[in-house]
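Memo to structure team: turn this sequence into structure tokens by end of day. - J.P.
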Amino acid sequence: MISEESVEKAIDWLVESAESCAKKRAERLYLEDFTRSLKAEIMSQHLAEPLGAQERYAFSDIRYRNHLEALRLAIYDDEKGRFLRDAANAKIEAWRTQCSNQRANI
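Reply from structure team:
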């Protein structure tokens, strides 16, 4: 049985974590978009080379690899927040179903 206290905690957490989760999502989306800009910037430093070589330089550049690591962490933070929010919402929905079933059995 899911207690009302447990549901209240889940609702409180959803409200309190909204801004933090939004910031994590914004960071992830920004880094995903920035990937193309960074690649283009690095490639532009090798304009004398063929396109394939420019891309090879970009993908092997330490700035690009550091960016990918930052993106990995941002995705982790965003997904963790999403999974926790999904779990809190699932708890609330299960409680609602539980209450509905109790009313139906009365």
